[in-house]
Write a structure and sequence with these properties.
Radius of gyration of chain A: 19 Å
Strand content of chain A: 15-25%
Oligomer: heterodimer
Number of domains of chain A: 1
Strand order of the largest sheet of chain A: 6-7-8-3-9-10
Low-confidence stretches of chain A: none
Shape of chain A: globular
Shape of chain B: globular
CATH topology of chain B: ABC transporter involved in vitamin B12 uptake, BtuC
Helix content of chain A: 25-40%
CATH class of chain B: Mainly Alpha
Low-confidence stretches of chain B: none
Largest interface: A-B, 34 and 22 residues
Structural class of chain B: mainly alpha
Mean pLDDT of chain A: 90
CATH architecture of chain B: Orthogonal Bundle
Number of domains of chain B: 1
Strand content of chain B: under 5%
Largest sheet of chain A: 6 strands, mixed
Mean pLDDT of chain B: 93
Order of helices and strands of chain A: EEEHEEHEHHHHEHEHEEHH
Distance between the termini of chain B: 51 Å
Number of helices of chain B: 12
């Protein structure tokens, strides 16, 4: 894979919610972003900066008001969510969103395996697919590979999030979107899920956008760091610049971009 | 004498459990599998009866007429699911709208309130002539049993296929299904259509079994189906697709058995629907009241 090949291009993406009412919010305000194949980008920003809206637009949950989304040279602007799913795997903040509780691990993975492929009247799972699922779960070291017929609803939040992660990556999508996927987990579980994420992203070489509140995480993981503020990308740092960056540098960058002291955002943007 | 009656009640309930089992499976598909509370059922049951009866009277082969009834039911479900997915009408309302509309359609199809199938070649008569089975209950049980086995095997296979899995997942977590690249509109349309096809299929068989189709024969069918599903789940606590299907048919059998016994003991047939409604209300209220007693927090009732 060519490391510098452009994979995703966002051109002037704008999204306004509740247009024409007192609640009008400009969630995205002309976002331009070029993501190269193999990038692992951490996206930070305070609440309301537009991080999740950006992921929603890329995943086709709703179309942007204006602007274009080009993936692999193909214009996917306005493509509905289930069509975008062919290219995009996603892990949500809430483990319940990514998995079906009343179905087994095997059934959940069987759903995810056929991402973007036509579904027919073949058996949803078979011996070969079960082997595939075990092979995907075994390296995690959680013993989930021996629990394929366990109902996902009986797993812990961390285990469910790991299943979500495997579901998002098992069909090797072009793009992986992580939407604060460890924010709901306790610190120890969060670290486990984060390490597994890092392992999978590196092994499968999946281009990844990871939204987080946590600046430490954003510095530690990924080869690129983006800071959003009020619907715009205000900081975009590559691997070399990131390597020497400290949290204080990030705070300073934020204050410069936002034109105000960081203090106000202390609670929202964890140090 | 008493044994005779008991045997008769039992075998007749078994027959009814099998034919109404199709309704129960249909209701199970929408309410439980898809999470789509579909009330089309009352209309599509009578639709199946009307379509098959009129076709049989017109000289069409009864098996073809029964298949046509299934097709008509599929169309009714298609309309309900399109109203919901494409026009965004809430599922309950979409079902009621189609159910009410079907009442007029069924009257039009039959050209009146009912159609008699007396001395008409129903599937039961054809099978009894073919096999030379004498007693009514013998050939009724044979026909219903064979059809139930066929439907069971088809659904048990279908729900395990890739499409079937997507259908089951839709009721569990629609967001996840879309995220996996499946158009949930399509799975809902498919599921609701199949459900109503089964219900109409049941209507066609019931009409042929009792010797007439009536525009009012679908009234309360949805509640009967729900009662069967609830009884089946409570009694058999099934796990897995195959056992769930069997449990639902079993629920229909138990329900019909209880009703038959009650009728034998002198309950007025007119009270049947009220009693069914009360059974379902109790079954729905029990989990709520249990939590209430344990002082658990409960969300307000959903309106749609």
């Amino acid at each position: 894979m060519n490391e510098n090949k452009s994979l995703l291009n966002l051109r002037g993406i704008t999204k306004v919610f509740s247009k024409g009412t007192v609640d009008q919010v400009t969630a995205l305000n002309g976002v331009n972003l070029d993501v190269n194949s193999g990038d692992y980008i951490a996206i930070i920003g305070s609440n309301g900066a537009g991080k999740t809206t950006l992921l929603n637009v890329i995943a086709g949950v709703f179309p942007p008001d204006s602007g274009e989304i080009i993936l692999n040279g193909r214009n996917i602007t306005g493509l509905s969510e289930y069509r975008c799913a062919r290219y995009v795997g996603r892990v949500y903040q809430d483990p319940h969103v990514g998995t079906a509780a009343k179905m087994t691990i095997e059934e959940n993975l069987a759903m995810a395996l056929l991402r973007g492929q036509p579904r027919g009247l073949r058996a949803a799972s078979n011996k070969q697919r079960r082997e595939l699922f075990r092979a995907a779960l075994a390296p995690l070291g959680l013993g989930l590979e021996n629990r394929l017929s366990t109902l996902v609803g009986t797993l812990s939040g961390g285990q469910r999030q790991v299943v979500s992660l495997i579901m998002a990556t098992i069909s090797k999508p072009a793009l992986l979107l992580l939407d604060e996927h460890i924010a709901n987990l306790d610190p120890r579980t969060a670290q486990v899920v984060l390490d597994l994420t890092d392992m999978i992203v590196k092994k499968e070489k999946i281009t990844t956008l990871m939204v987080t509140h946590n600046m430490e995480l954003a510095l530690k993981y990924g080869n690129r760091l983006i800071m959003m503020h009020e619907g715009r990308i205000v900081v975009d740092l590559g691997k070399e610049e990131k390597a020497h960056l400290t949290i204080n540098d990030l705070v300073a960058a934020f204050e410069q971009a936002a034109g105000r002291k960081f203090v106000e955002d202390k609670i929202l943007l964890r140090r | 004498m008493l044994l005779d009656i008991a045997g008769h009640v039992l075998s007749f309930s078994f027959y009814e459990g099998l034919v109404f089992g199709f309704v129960a499976i249909g209701v199970y598909l929408t309410f439980r599998v898809l999470g789509f509370p579909d009330l089309t059922v009352d209309g599509s049951f009578a639709l199946g009866a009307a379509v098959s009866a009129v076709l049989i009277v017109d000289g069409v082969n009864p098996f073809l007429a029964t298949l046509a009834a299934l097709g008509a039911g599929l169309c009714a479900g298609l309309v309900t699911s399109l109203l919901n997915t494409k026009l965004r009408i809430p599922a309950l309302l979409a079902g009621i709208l189609v159910m009410v509309g079907l009442y007029s359609i069924n009257l039009r199809i039959m050209g009146g309130a009912n159609v008699s199938l007396l001395r008409q070649p129903t599937i039961f008569l054809q099978v009894s002539e073919f096999l030379g089975l004498g007693t009514r209950i013998a050939y009724q049980l044979t026909v219903a049993g064979v059809l139930a086995v066929v439907v069971f095997f088809i659904l048990n296979w279908f729900l395990r296929t890739e499409i079937g899995l997507a259908l089951r997942a839709t009721g569990d977590n629609e967001q996840m299904v879309r995220g996996a690249g499946v158009d949930t509109d399509k799975t809902i349309i498919l599921g609701v259509s199949i459900s109503n096809g089964l219900v109409a299929f049941s209507g066609a068989i019931v009409a042929q079994g009792q010797g007439f189709a009536d525009v009012g024969m679908g009234i309360g069918m949805i509640i009967m189906g729900l009662a069967a599903v609830i009884i089946g789940e409570a009694l058999f606590r099934p796990k897995g697709v195959a056992r769930l299907l069997l449990a639902v048919i079993g629920g229909a059998f138990v329900y019909r058995l209880v009703i038959s016994i009650a009728l034998r003991l002198g309950m007025a047939p007119g009270d049947l629907k009220l009693i069914t409604a009360v059974i379902v209300i109790i079954a729905l209220a029990i989990p709520f009241l249990q939590k209430k007693i344990q002082r658990q927090w409960l969300p307000p009732a959903s309106r749609w």
